[in-house]
Amino acid sequence: MWLSALLALACTLGGCAPGDPAKQAEAIRSIAAEAALLAHDAGEEGSSTETFVREHAEALERKLDEVRSVVDDQRLASVAADVAGQLARLAESPGDQRAAKTSERELERAARRAEELAK
To answer: The pTM is what?
Structure first.
């Protein structure tokens, strides 16, 4: 029994959101918001290095994949897929400022959609 509690605590602290759609939506909103900040930096001349943008985007993709693996709600899955697409775009072209600005807008929109689904 204590092992189950320990695993649940580790999952909560680790950011995964099993079963609860509101927590899943909040986790996706958080990732999308952080990714929007990353995209904002990538869209500004000299704010972040390409290596930093690529690595951070890939780390956020891995975190998002953990949440996506337990999402059952189709609307939430759609938001998560949009976020994943924008993260992939940032990781693939970390020096493309125009694409980063577009990603920033799309990620902000996805964060708002996830926030609405969390309610």
So the answer is: 0.83
